[in-house]
Amino acid sequence: MARGSRLARLAALGLLGVLTLTGCSMPNNEFWRFGWPEGVTEQATDMRELWTGSVIAALIVGILVWGLILFPVVRHRKRSDDLPRQTAYNLPLEIVYTIAPFLIIAALFFYTVIVQNKVMERSDNPDETIAVNAFKWNWRFVYPDTQGPDGEPVDTVGTSDEIPILVLPTDRTIRFEVASADVIHSFWVPEFLFKLDVIPGNENGRDNVFEVTVQEEGAYVGRCAELCGTYHAFMNFEVRAVSGDDYDAYLQAREEGMTTFEALEEIGQPGKATTTQPFDLGQDLQQANGG
Fold first, then answer.
1. pTM
2. Of 51, 74, 76, 129, which has the fewest Cβ atoms less than 10 A away?
């Protein structure tokens, strides 16, 4: 019974370590990310910490289980032909290994819900709002708070010959209202560590909403992550994250009538996408995109 009590206490201590570590703030270096990308948004940090905590918890449970397997293999290895003493029940240990999995799952579920709610949280007054319209097989990005020379909001539309560039400011809360003109697409920027299915209908563009705060300037490839038809694999775009001042200057240039290329060149950015390029798919795709 004493040996069983020690094992029960050891299991309880391991469980306490799991529950504690899943709630800790995790360091952000390559080793502790366990293969998880670093990300460039505030929300990516929360998801990375959840991943790191979950992996550490899994390692603790794994080491404990391996230890419990190896201990009897070594401790009770065959030494003679005599039948060892038989133990029918160990109530403390049975209670631990019955309750422990439930508590581990409950803890992981608890922190997962917290992070999910934080990632999907919507602010009352985001700094910027972008309307993302997906269609077979490209993207249209609309800045609804702007007005171009024609009186319509400034937008950027991709074609079979041009990768659409979505210009975003850093250090501002950006709301994406995502809509589809036809089938289910998926708005995915790998460096955001997040993607959202673009589901037509069901208050299209209203329920399909999420927010991010980009923390690092740069050019990041974006893709459709939902099989949507013949040319799904080539439905790419680029996110160009710039400073707040450059973003304001870009929108002003667009409102004055400049194209996306010209406005980007105006603020010292490459006018064309640098992370991906159009694919030569022939006349069929040009016709499909209205080119």
1. 0.76
2. 74
